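Problem: given the chain below (99 residues), write out its structure.
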Amino acid sequence: MTQVTLKQDGKTLTALLSGEIDHHWAAILREKIDERAAAAAPAILILDFSAVTFMDSSGIGLILGRHKLISAMGGVVVVQKAPKDIKRMLSIAGIESKD
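Solution.
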């Protein structure tokens, strides 16, 4: 099952993503992350992909959309702990994943 667990520590909001991110799930994840981000106005949004088992191009859209949202608030997005296959896709899209 795909899900997101959101944790806030000061001005850092971490979204722990798990499961498969496809068109259907990306929309659900986007809604949950955006709702919390709108309330928290984080300086840093960390998208943690360590438990993601599959991602298609919808995941790239999820990242880019959150980047646009958080940048408009004056913050930054950090993508971290992407598995090897997902890291390759992120690299092709020009997105860096920190380990």
